[in-house]
Amino acid sequence: MLTKQVYFLSRRTYCSVVNLASDIKNARPFSEIPKISFLKVARGNLPGGKYYKKSMREIQQLFYEEYGSIMTIPPMLGRPQFVITYNPEDFETVFRVEGNWPVRFGIESLSYYRTTKRPEIYGDLGSLFVSHGEKWSQMRSIANPILMQPKTIKRYLTQIDNIAKEFIELMRKIRNEKSEMPGDFSNYINTWSLESVTAVGLERRLNLFDENTKDENAKKLIKGIRDFFEMTVEYDGKASIWKYYQTKGFKELLNVYDTLTDVIMYYIDLAMKEMNEENSSSDTEDSVLRKLLRADKRVAVVVVSDLMLAGVDTTASATLNTLYCLAKNPDKQEILRQELIEILPDKNTKLTPEKIRNLPYLRAVIKESFRTLPIVSGNARMTTKDVVLSGFHVPANTHVGMQPLFAMQDDKFYPNAKQFLPERWLREQTEGCPRAGVSNPFTFLPFGFGARSCIGKRIAELELETLLTNIIRNFKVEWHYPDMKIKSTFVNIPESEMRFKIIDV
Ligand code: HEM
Predict the structure, then answer these.
(1) Diameter of the chain by CA atoms?
(2) Which residues of the sequence carry a binding annotation for heme (predicted)?
(3) Least buried of 4, 41, 65, 187, by fewest C-beta within 10 Å?
(4) Which of 305, 299, 295 is nearest to 264 (CA)?
(5) Ligand 1: which of 454, 455, 489, 493 to mutate, judged by most atoms within 8 Å of the beta carbon?
(6) Is residue 495 included in any domain, yes or no?
(7) Which residues of the chain have pLDDT under 70?
(8) Cα within 13 Å of Cα(105), Cβ side
C-alpha cells in the first residue's frame, strides 16, 4: 500500500502519506536514481580531489549541485549503499514507514568498540545512540520514562540556573579590555554544557569553571568528547578502511573510547559510594542517576555515556549559534530582552518553573536559530517497506540519508529565508511576517522524529533556555567580526573565534 502523497493541512502540521501499490508500479526503477560512483568518491577524497578535507556540509553542497535532489552512494568499505535525498516530501515518506524499531545507520566504530573491546561492560546491552532493533528498544524503554518526563527534568532547573549564573560571572571575569570574550570562548561554552549535563546525568558538579578545582578526570572527559566528534567523522562519516585494517588513527579513537568509559565508570562508582553512604532523601530518590542505577549499574554506564557523547557539543553549538544570531540581529535581541525583563525585573532573581513557562519569543528565537544554523547536518533511517522517493522506487531495507539544509533555506518553504525572523514561529501571527513550517513541517526536525528522536531534547531545552535567559538579561551581545565560519562534523560547530562583545545592561 504505497504512496499517493496527499497532504491534509491542519492548524500546526500536515499529515499524512496515503500509500498506493500503484504508485510503486508507476515509479521509475531504483537503477535510474543518479549514482555517485565509487571511483569518483575515492578519487575525490585523495589529496587535490574535489572532496579532499571538505566538511560534511561542503560535500553535501557539492553532491546537491552535481546530482540534484536524490542520488545513491554505492556500498563502500563495509558501509552499505545509501540513498541521499534533499526532498522533504521524501523525509515524510521515510519517517512514516520507520516502524517500531527505527534503524539509523550511525557510529559503527563505537558499536565495534563496545562489543569487542569492553564486552564485560557493554556486552549484551544495547545503546541508545548506536544499537538497533530489540536491544535499542529495551534501552530506550528504560530511559524514556526517566529522561522524557518534564517533571524529572524540571527538578534540575535550580541546579542548571545556578550553573548559568556562575557562567555569567565567568563571562565577566574573562572579558578583555574591549569587553570581548576570548578567542576560545567556544571551549568555555563547552565546559558549561558538560557541567550542566553531568549535573543531570551524574548528579555531580565537576566545577569546570574553576581551573584550580578542575580534576584530571574532568579534563579527560572534555578532551575525549571533542576527540570523539572530530575522529568519528573520519571513521564513520566517510568511507574508511578500519573494518579491514586498523590504522594508527583508528587505534587512537579506540583509546578515546577507553578513556571515556573509564572516566564515566569512575564517576558512577563515586556516585554509588556517596549514595550508599548518605541517607537517601525523597528528593535524591527521584534523580536520573538513581533511577538508572536502580535498573542496573551497567545500564547507567551505557545511558550516561550516550548522554555525554550526544549532549555536550550539540547544546554548546546551539547556544553559540543562537547568541551569534542575536548579536547579528540586535532588534530581535532587544525584543527578547523585553520579554525577559518581564519575568526577571531583577536580573539576579532565581528562575522557577513558573517564570520560564511563558517565554514564547525565546523559544521562537531558538527555533529560528536552528533553522538558519542547523546543529546536525541531517538524519538517516532504513526503510522498512518499499517506498517511492522523488518518483523512484526504493526497496525495503535501504538506508536513506535525509538532508534538510537546503529546504530550510529555501524561500519556497520559508519566505524571506535569508532573514532571521523569530516571529515566523510565534503562535500569534505578526503582521507582514511569513509563517514557518506550514508548507512542510518535515523540513524542520532539529531533534529528529518519532520513537528514535532525541532523548535529550528536554535537557537541551532546559539548558539552552536557562543560559540564554541569563546572558541576554545581563548583557547586550554584539558581534564585530567577519561572518562566523562553521566546521561541519556530525554536529555543525562554530569554527571561528567567538569573540562576542558583552555590555552590561
Ligand atoms: C540542541 C541540542 C541537541 C540537538 C539539536 C540534538 C539533536 C538530535 C538528533 C537530530 C538526534 C537524532 C534523532 C533521530 O534519529 O530522529 C538525536 C539523538 C540523540 N540525542 Fe540529541 N540533540 C541535542 C541535545 C542532546 C542532549 C543534551 C542529549 C543528552 C543529554 C542528547 C542525547 C541524544 C541521544 C542519546 C540520542 C540517540 C537517541 C536514540 O537513537 O534513541 N541530545 N539528537
Answers:
(1) 69
(2) 454
(3) 65
(4) 305
(5) 454
(6) yes
(7) 1-20, 213-214, 279-286, 437-438
(8) 20
Residue 448 CB neighbour total at 10 angstroms: 18
Task: Write the pLDDT tens digit of every residue in 413-465.
Answer: 999 999 999 999 998 777 777 777 667 889 999 999 999 999 999 999 999 99
Residue 304 domain flag: yes
Domain that includes residue 487, residue range: 109-373+424-504
Q: Dump pLDDT digits (tens) for 243-288.
A: 888 999 999 999 999 999 999 999 899 888 887 777 555 455 568 8
Backbone angles phi, psi at 70, to 5 degrees: -145, 145
- Amino acid at residue number 141: S
The Cα angle at residue 505 between residues 176 and 427, in degrees rounded to 5 = 120
Q: Do 272 and 298 touch, CB atoms closer than 8 A?
A: no
Please state the domain count of the chain: 2
Tell whether 346 and 245 lie within a shared domain: yes
- Check: CB of residue 232 under 8 Å from CB of residue 490: yes
Q: Which residue type does 385 have?
A: K
* Phi, psi torsion values for 353, nearest 5 degrees: -55, -35
Q: Is 56 in the same domain as 192?
A: no
Q: Which helix (DSSP H) or strand (DSSP E) does residue 331 occupy?
A: helix 330-343
Q: What is the pLDDT of residue 279?
A: 58
Integer-rounded Cα Rg, in Å, for the chain is 23
pLDDT digits (tens, 9 = 90+) for 225-235: 889 888 887 88
Please give the distance, rounded to the nearest whole angstrom, from the Cα atom of residue 129 to the centre of ligand 1: 8
Residues 474, 401, single domain; the answer is no
Written as nine digits, the cell of 95 is 519517517
Does 297 map to a domain?
yes
Return the ligand 1 atom nearest residue 312 CA.
27
CA distances from 154 to 56, 198, 287, 348, 481 (A): 35, 15, 11, 20, 37
Helix (H, G, I), strand (E, B) or coil at 84: strand
82-85 sheet: strands from edge to edge: 70-73, 82-85, 399-402, 379-382
Is 433 labelled a binding residue? Answer: no
The answer to whether residues 140 and 12 belong to one domain is no
Instruction: Using DSSP bridges, classify how beta strands 392-394 and 387-389 pair: parallel, antiparallel or unpaired.
Output: antiparallel
Distance (Å, rounded) from C-alpha 436 to C-alpha 456?
24
How far away, in angstroms, is 267 Cα from ligand 1 center?
Answer: 22
Instruction: List the CATH number of the domain containing 476.
Output: 1.10.630.10
Residue 59, domain member (yes or no):
yes
Residue with cell 539509523: 104
Residue 482 amino acid letter: P
